[in-house]
Amino acid sequence: MVTNREQPNDNTSPNNTQTAVEQPTTKNSKFFLTHLAYLKTCIQRQPWGDYLKSLALIGLVTLLGQPLSPFVDHANLVMLYLLAEVIAATRFGLGPSIVAAIASVTAFNFFFIMPHFTFAIEEAQHLLTFSGLLIVGLVISTLTARIRQQAKTAQRREAQASASYHFSRSLAEAVGLEAIVQATISHIKQVFDREVLILLPKEAELSLQTLTPDSMLDELEYTVANWVFQSGRPAGRGTQIYAAANLRYHPLKTARGVVGVLGIKPPSTSGRLSPEQQQLLEVFTSQTAVAVERNQLARQAQQNQLLLEKEKLQTALLNSISHDLRTPLASITGVLSSLYEDEAYLDAATRHELVESACEEAERMNRLVANLLDMSRLQAGSMKVEREPGDVQDLVGVALAELHHKLQGRPVTVNIPIGLPLIPFDFVLMSRVLINLLDNAHKYSPAGRPIEIRAHLAGTTVEIEVADRGPGIPPDEVEQVFEKFYRVQRADGVSGTGLGLSICKGIVEGHGGRIWAHNRPGGGAIITLALPLYQPETAQAEMTS
Amino acid sequence: MSESRESGPRVLIIDDERAIRRFLRASLTAHGYTVFEAISGQEGLKAVITHRPDLIILDLGLPDIAGLKVLRQLREWSQTPIIILSVQEQEADKIAALDAGANDYLTKPFGIGELMARLRVALRHATQPTDQPVFSSGELSVDLARRLVTVAGQEIQLTPTEYDLLKLFITHAGKVLTHQQILRQVWGVGYANELHLLRVNISNLRHKIESDPTRPRYLLTEPGVGYRLRTDV
After folding, report:
1. Most buried by CB count within 10 Å: which residue of A31, A195, A507, B160?
2. Are A185 and A210 in contact (CB under 8 A)?
3. Straight-line distance from the first to the last Cα atom of chain B, in angstroms, rounded to the nearest whole number
4. Cα(A200)–Cα(A208) distance, integer angstroms
């Protein structure tokens, strides 16, 4: 009679849904049982008022029919009853409309068919009228009930789709595992009125992701959760596996495997979940699983990227060490060995020259080692910026003094206005920046060409510029020069590690400042750095690359 | 203090690095110093008692006891000048050592010229406290008795603070003074953290006594540590 595939609804007695769902007996008996149950629920669900109303409706039709019966044919009086049955079916549902169909036949027989006021029938043709009335009434009842049921289902499906859509949207917006977990918990709470827990693997063990005081789990719960994680099947309360557990656990499953476990607390007030709700919960569970997996994959990708960069850095460092440290070392060794072995053949001037070059190379090595150290510290995020009020002129002076030997014979002009305010910076680190910038300007511009250092107030920053008259930077490379190990390709083979500017960038940004490069009119490059006049509110104590 | 007239000043080197000791011994002996060596903190502390050096060169990175600890132990009973050897990245250690009573420091790698200058300054301060009335270095001349400062014969007007600052440097000529040491002595104990006062006054002082304040000849900056008045301009 009832042919749709809807499962019994949630107001049924507690023992029929679970068994119907989880213990498939034979197909036919299940089909029959389900439909019987459906009918039962439909009928049970009607309030008694609706039955009385449909009876009253039939009574009204009978009363109306009394004065009409002398003038109207019996067949047409039946139409009035059919009308009443349609009203009962559309307004009051299946049970009352069936009652209305039966009552119609009874009343029609009793009041209008000869002999009046008995249930006896004189003419056999009236049997046809009765059965017609009854069958049409019952068909109308069931059809109408089905339409109502389908409309309700459609509504529920829509609600389900919309809930699932909202959930997936909030998952998509969730950044990080914490947010995903929170979104899941709050959504399930909102939609199902159930408390849920999420357990995710952490260092080969499942660990609870919700840290509310009432969400502590005892050993049994963990055992069940772990079993669910291992087997990928639901277990716990309400299932046949570990039914003694307090919670019911569902695996968070994706195509790749189980990524975690969702634990559902037994409801405190509301009843069991309807099959639709269970379906929806499954949808939510798999959405959560996908979100968790997505997060894990993203994290893995990030780690791989970091690892790759670390490897690249290590390779570059090794190259640096083997080439850039060996070059000065080679010349120092050469000088020392010739002083040691050829002392007799060397005149004083040559000796002096040799020793001088060895000292220069040693200085170069020292700077390189300092840069390598700075780089690895920046990379490890262990460089601490200790800001103290500092004088830019003092800073420039220290850098010039450090490169005193190297810059001999090179015109260096310094233009710093008197009264430039003190600014907060780490003197030691910023002097490393300036030494690198000056060293670069010296390295990348022909000997004898001037280097200019300027400083001035620019809004809420102080800008310091180091300008040279070298070949400049190719316009499309002005950004890249600050990248690690980046070096402008040059024919004249200027040596360097390509670390200097990236260290400068790291240090300046650690001060909340900016550094950029551009070419000057008339030739040459300018590196400008801007340091904030005031200590930024969110002082970054540590720098990361 | 035991002074032997035949050999020069006695220097104790406490450093675990053989190459450093060897280089120091060769250079110092060549300059007329008598050299003793110790390869650990423990040995160094004993050697101070045995050899009674006039000066100690102490490496901050010793294998057994931290150099800073050796320094503090020594300072409990000895005023022998101590010069610290450290590497570039240890500014905080340098300051701690200077505050704990080290006379000066050298950053590895260092040249022999720098080392000799530090030794001379430390030995001079130890043997004869500077109370000469007139300090002069290069074109700078300061008559402490008359509070008269001249550069290349021209009289320079200093504010009282600038003068106190310069006077402090002259009393410790050639020796590094940490920011805190200067602030405490010129401004007072409560001003130890007011670095900006020092920066501004150093800058002003440089503009008055240096011909090019960006390339100071007299008042040198020790990055992250303090300042030093050069004596051998």
Report:
1. A507
2. yes
3. 31
4. 7
* Strand A461-467 to A525-532 pairing: antiparallel
Alpha helices in chain B (DSSP H): 18-30, 41-51, 67-75, 91-99, 112-127, 160-171, 179-186, 195-209
Tell me if A494 sits within 8 A of A371, measured CB to CB.
Answer: no
Predicted local distance difference test score (pLDDT) of residue A451: 96
B109: preceding bond cis by omega (within 30 degrees) = yes
Report yes or no: A383 and A433 within 8 Å, Cβ to Cβ. Answer: no
Please say whether the beta carbons of A509 and A344 come within 8 A.
no
Cα B20 to Cα B110: distance, rounded to the nearest angstrom? 11
A391 touches chain B (CB under 8 A): yes
**How many other C-beta atoms can be found within 10 angstroms of the C-beta atom of residue A137?**
26
Does this model's pTM top 0.80?
no
Query: What is the C-alpha separation between B130 and B136, in angstroms, rounded?
Result: 12
Give alpha helix (H) positions in A246-347.
Answer: 275-320, 326-341
* Total count of residues recorded for chain B: 233
| Cβ pair A362:B109 closer than 8 A | yes
Q: Which helix (H) or strand (E) holds B135?
A: strand B134-137
pLDDT tens digits, residue range A149-199?
888 888 878 887 888 888 888 888 888 888 888 888 888 887 877 778 888
Look at residue A34 and give its three-state secondary structure: helix
Residue A105 confidence class, pLDDT cut points 50, 70, 90: confident
Cβ within 8 Å, pair A389-B207: no
Going by the DSSP 8-state scheme, the letter that residue A267 receives in this structure is P
Rg (CA), chain A: 44
- A325 in contact with B at a CB cutoff of 8 Å? no
CA-closest candidate to residue A388, choices B148, B187, B200, B154 = B200
Which one, of B62, B83, B68, B48, lies nearest residue B15 by Cα? B62
Matching residue, tokens 């009930």: A145
Residue B203: which of A362, A391, A400 has the nearest Cβ? A391
Residue A141's contacts (CB-CB under 8 Å, 6 or more residues apart) are A85, A88, A89, A94, A97, A98, A100, A101
Do A400 and B215 make contact, defined as CB atoms within 8 angstroms? yes
- Verify whether the Cβ–Cβ distance B214 to A390 is below 8 Å: no
Of B109, B199, B214, the CB nearest to A390: B199
Answer whether A485 touches B (CB < 8 Å). no
- Collapsing DSSP states into helix, strand and coil, what is residue A179? helix
pLDDT at A435: 94
| Whether the predicted pLDDT of A32 surpasses 60 | no
CB contact (8 A) between residue B91 and residue A362: no
pLDDT value at B37 more than 50: yes
Give bridge partners of residue A515 from the DSSP assignment.
Answer: A529
Q: How far is B96 from chain A (nearest CA, A)?
A: 16
Distances (CA, A) of A518 to A26, A433, A521, A525, B175: 82, 17, 10, 6, 42
Q: Does the pLDDT of residue B51 top 80, yes or no?
A: yes
Question: What average pLDDT does the structure give for chain A?
Answer: 80
Q: Label residue A73 by pLDDT band (50, 70, 90).
A: confident
DSSP notation for B84-134:
EEEETT-HHHHHHHHHTT--EEEEES--HHHHHHHHHHHHHHHHS----SE
Distance from CA of B131 to the nearest CA of A (A): 30
Contact between A396 and A434 under an 8 Å Cβ cutoff? The reply is yes
Start-to-end CA distance of chain A, whole Å, equals 73
Triad A228, A232, A236: Cα angle to 5°: 30
Residue A274 in tokens: 């309807």
Task: Give the integer Cα–Cα distance in Å for B56 and B14.
Answer: 7
Chain A positions touching B214 (Cβ under 8 A) are 393, 396-397, 400, 414, 416
